[in-house]
Design goal:
single chain; 375 residues; alpha/beta; Rossmann fold; 2 domains; seven-stranded mixed β-sheet; globular
């Protein structure tokens, strides 16, 4: 274990290396570029490879290939680059490829404001690609959590054989705070399952174990396996039938939902006596926490729910986290996206949006202005 003073971007890079990152491919784009720069200097010292690709499309396809060669792999980008990765995210889903994709959110649409912050990519992270699937999404609110949730993202990817998205933002990326960096033996690091032995005989490489996750053969290690992006059966053969379609898509979703207790994380504070619950996530939650303490000084019994996992949501844990709250106010730096989820989940309470559209970390006065009409 060692202590450091670092930014959120540096923490992501260190977390990835702690989790066992061996291959990084990327293309420079603010406000994520420091992840690439830091890894370009540090990862080769630890036996890894860093490659600058010609664009974000090549980057994500390179990390998918590296993962099939047995390497833990990651790429990082921002909104415009993440848009370019959408098709390959679907490829990683249907081929069950464990990769980590970091999206450091910035203001948009389009080129937007390259160095300014936002939380507008929440839905894009969930549903960037077409088709039915669930990709886990994590959102840190501090430098330490950028490190911790990067490790969690790798563990989730390896455990479930799925792409996982770390949804940071420009504020967290460039924030300087103290950071505890752990040695490999001091933190849980999950490795993927591989088939127990190499065989010359054909075998169904997509046949799942009881946890719905198939062991993953490694290219170049003697396994004979067909990896197909088309709708495929357990042997990897293209099979456009209702039974195969239902079986494959349902398993891709269920393998994540079945481990919801592992994938989903949240934090609550002041919920014992709260009559008003404020919900937030990422950098904006930092300001919301200060506002809650101010409201409580004024006699408003306000509670705090911070989502660390933005997808999938554990609706029962969310609904029961603050049992006496009569009002729910959702504070986020976008037009009100998680608000839509909270309206559904807290269906027996009054739920209000408190959107703060800001190119900087929302100030306490801005959050108060958005919250006070609903108190």
């Amino acid at each position: 274990m060692r202590r450091a003073f670092a930014t959120g971007n540096f923490a992501v890079a260190e977390g990835a290396m702690t989790a066992g990152l061996r291959f990084y491919a990327g293309y420079p784009i603010t406000p994520s570029s420091e992840i690439f720069e830091y890894l370009a200097e540090e990862l080769p010292k630890r036996g890894g490879v860093v490659v600058q690709m010609e664009d974000e499309i090549a980057s994500i396809n390179a990390v998918i290939g590296a993962s099939w060669a047995g390497a833990k792999a990651m790429t990082a980008t921002s909104g415009p680059g993440f848009s370019l990765m959408a098709e390959a995210i679907g490829l990683a889903v249907i081929t069950e490829t464990p990769v980590v994709i970091v999206n450091v959110m910035r203001a948009g649409p389009s080129t937007g404001a390259p160095t300014k912050t936002s939380q507008s990519d929440v839905f894009q992270a969930r549903w960037a690609s077409h088709g039915d699937y669930i990709v886990p999404v994590y959102a840190p609110w501090s430098v330490q959590e950028a490190y911790d949730l990067t490790i969690k993202a790798f563990n989730t990817a390896e455990l479930l054989r799925t792409p996982v998205i770390l949804l940071s933002d420009a504020t967290i990326a460039h924030l300087w705070e103290s950071l505890t960096i752990y040695d490999r033996g001091e933190v849980e690091v999950i490795e993927r399952k591989i088939p127990k032995k190499v065989s010359d005989e054909p075998y169904p490489p997509h046949k799942p174990d009881e946890d719905l996750v198939p062991p993953m053969p490694i290219f170049g290690a003697g396994f004979k396996a067909l990896v197909e992006s088309l709708l495929h059966d357990e042997w990897g053969h293209y099979s456009p039938t209702n039974s195969v379609y239902h079986s494959l898509v349902k398993r891709l979703v269920d393998k994540v939902v079945k481990r919801l207790s592992y994938v989903y994380e949240q934090e609550t504070r002041f919920c014992e006596d709260a009559e008003v619950l404020l919900v937030s996530y990422g950098s904006t939650a930092r300001t919301v926490y200060l506002v809650i303490k101010e409201l409580r000084k004024r006699g408003v019994r306000a509670g705090f729910l911070r989502l660390k996992t933005l997808w999938p949501l554990d609706e029962e844990r969310i609904r029961s986290c603050c049992p006496n709250a009569k009002k729910v106010i959702v504070v986020e730096n976008n037009i009100g996206k998680i608000y839509m989820d909270m309206s559904r989940i807290f269906r027996n309470q009054d739920v209000f949006p408190a959107s703060v559209l800001s190119l900087e970390l929302p100030t306490p006065s801005e959050v108060l202005e958005a919250v006070e009409p609903w108190l």
